[in-house]
Amino acid sequence: MRVTLTALATLALAGAALAEPVAPMDVVYEDGAIAGSLTGMAGDPDNGAKLMNKGAGNCIACHQVTALETLPFHGEIGPSLDGVSERWSVAEIRGIVANAKEMFPETMMPSFYRDTGFIRPGKAYTGKGIDPAELTPLLTAQEIEDLVSYLITLKYE
Amino acid sequence: MRTILTAGSFAVVALLAAPALADPDEDNLVINDELQMVTETAAPAHMEHVDTIYSGWRFRTDETQALQIDDFENPAMIFVDQGMDLFNSVDGTEGKSCASCHEDVAAFAGFHAEMPKVMNGKLVVMEDFINGHRARAMGAEPWKWSGPEMQAMVALIGLQSRGMPMNVKIDGDAAPYWEQGKEMYYTRYGQLELSCANCHEDSYGLMIRADHLSQGQINGFPTYRLKQAKLISRHNRFRGCIRDTRAETFAEGSDEFRALELYVASRSNGLSVETPAVRQ
After folding, report:
1. Is this model's pTM higher than 0.95 or not?
2. Which residues in chain A have their CB less than 8 angstroms from residue B183's CB?
3. If you compute the radius of gyration of chain B from its CA atoms, what whole number of angstroms results?
């Protein structure tokens, strides 16, 4: 009986652990890529498309995407993301979006799923400092997955 | 049919990839039909990664550029006039105005082009010079760094050097401050980890969202910013750029920003002083 209870508790714990997204510091990069979903769940490409334009994503500040051409002002700092799913695997895309510096060490692209190692991090765009312990990554694990699920729809015409 | 479709989508890609504003434009800045400005010249020898320096004016739209070619159109000139009134106004316990000691503001010609500089062992920027004289000679309260009085006065004194080449000193006693500023220029601050150089050295000429990146030169400061409808100080601009990297900024009037100002000014060496410039 006792054994069964412990086993049950362990199972429950494992279940809880599975539901928890991988924390930024626990993400494993292999040659810049992340093998599996950070949340164990599929992404929502519609939300991914929104993040391309808004909030802490704002990817088109630097990238052009023909599929989003109704949105104004695509930046030119990074390459066009057209056809990105034909250049990179899903795991590589996930790695690039989570922390592009693993794939391209000096890149200007911000690390969207990292919460340590910054110089004078601030409280969002207030210009004020933040206690490093309170710093959260720019995007949540699910938002990374949403972006990945959107990016893999981008093929060459 | 297929060919037409493909051709059509290529056209879209080409449009997105090469917007009208890609580089500095070819326009020539002549102010009031007589004052020829240098908006492009060989980079000073100390710059390792850039061959040619350009005024921010060359990256602005024709509409914004037009506001700077004629002083009657330049909205900053209202503030310069206010600066002239302040120059002649008595303030403080000594019953003096600036004009009590500096009869003609034109005597400041050339001064701005060499600022900031080390005076009595301290790196002094124009705001320090102005508040220092207010305190010592006039017994007057200091003006707020980016406040309207201070920036009107900085613009008035700067205007006396308009058309002269920027020429700040970077060696001798200026060297340690210059090194500190250079170090800051290449530091990737904030949660976005972007340095001044990432945007203004590696990416000038490119669009970042709706903004056409210039080299971030300060030869036109204080600038009249159309968005804010007032004069913007150098330190205010630095603060805004660092804030936009999701960083904790430095304070206006901090020693860090003095050093950064010297370094950034030295990257303008050779461009004409444009004070007061007009920007979007």
Report:
1. no
2. none
3. 20
